[in-house]
Design brief:
The complex is a heterodimer of chains A (186) and B (80). With 186 residues, chain A is an alpha+beta fold. Chain A has a single domain (2-185), classed as Alpha-D-Glucose-1,6-Bisphosphate, Chain A, domain 4 (2-Layer Sandwich), CATH 3.30.530. Chain A has helices at 15-23, 139-185, and strands at 2-11, 34-44, 51-60, 75-85, 90-97, 105-114, 122-131. The radius of gyration of chain A is 19 Å and the shape is globular. Chain A starts with a strand and ends with a helix. Chain B has 80 residues and is mainly alpha-helical. Helices cover 57% and strands 0% of the residues of chain B. In chain B, helix 1 (9-25) packs across helix 2 (37-53). The chains are: A alpha+beta (186), B mainly alpha (80). The interface between A and B is large, with 42 and 36 residues.
Chain lengths: 186, 80
């Protein structure tokens, strides 16, 4: 069973701000299921100038009741790879679960692109793929569960991003104001 | 945000602070330097030890090349 979902939306912020917020999105009040986040790799591609980051996330494993007999262990580990192309104004994040893969493999791709028509807008595309081969007549349940979870997760991650964006902008405004004040003093 | 192990959290926070500052003040402004390498190295030493203890090292190195592989044939669209 392979299932693809896709959703598009946009943020009313510049790509610089959105990419910054994305990389700093944890913790936030809408992501309490994310327990820890670690950076495993951080490098700049010498040829392309792209920034590449690999992260390991630990999340609480909130599985539906019918799946609890199949899934053992409490936490789920997720690997994330982010590529930031500053010149193109594009950030691509890809994630994959590395635990509980016998039940399902969930991959997510998020693309954040500067809107070519409006520099204060950032276009966001979410793609999710769910592959499950567990059988036992559970595939349709997994499918339905993952569909509702997909919508729920996107809504939560959007709220989290908006929260962090608001903070980032306030900080930015604060810094700008500080600079103006400093200039006035000089 | 906490690290996977409490013992690495202080180093992680130090690295995160460095990275965030570097990202907004240098990378986004076009700089190609990679700051934070010293603190990142210290943080990684701690992290590698913990990942090994938790038996995650192999799981991670096996999974890394495969991340996003289901989207590989769709990537062409993004570059346009």
């Amino acid at each position: 069973m392979v299932k693809f979902f896709q959703q598009r939306y946009s943020y009313d912020y510049s790509w610089n701000t959105v990419s910054y917020a994305f990389l700093n999105r944890y913790p936030n009040p809408f992501a309490t299921h994310v327990l820890t986040a670690d950076t495993l790799d951080h490098r700049i591609d010498e040829e392309t100038g792209e920034l590449r980051i690999t992260r390991l996330l630990r999340k609480t494993n909130s599985v539906p009741r019918w799946a609890r007999s199949i899934i053992r262990g409490n936490d789920a580990y997720i690997l994330e790879e982010v590529v930031v192309d500053r010149q193109a104004g594009r950030l691509v994040s890809k994630t994959r679960n590395i635990t509980h893969t016998r039940l399902m493999k969930v991959e997510e791709k998020q693309t954040l692109k500067a809107d070519p028509l409006d520099q204060n807008q950032t276009l966001c595309k979410n793609e999710t793929s769910i592959v499950s081969s567990i059988g036992y007549g559970l595939n349709s349940r997994i499918e339905n569960f993952s569909l509702s979870r997909f919508a729920e997760n996107i809504s939560k991650s959007r709220k989290g991003m908006l929260y962090v964006l608001e903070l980032a902008q306030r900080k930015g405004l604060f810094r700008q104001r500080l600079r103006v004040e400093q200039q006035l003093e000089n | 945000m906490e690290s996977i192990s409490k013992e690495c959290t202080p180093l992680k926070h130090e690295y995160d602070a460095c990275f965030t500052k570097w990202y907004s003040e240098k990378f986004l402004q076009g700089a190609k330097t990679n700051d934070c390498t010293k603190v990142f190295k210290q943080y990684q030493e701690c992290l590698k030890r913990v990942l090994k203890e938790k038996g995650l090292t192999k799981m991670i190195s096996d999974a890394r090349p495969a991340i996003g592989s289901v989207f590989a044939d769709r990537d062409g669209d993004e570059k346009k």
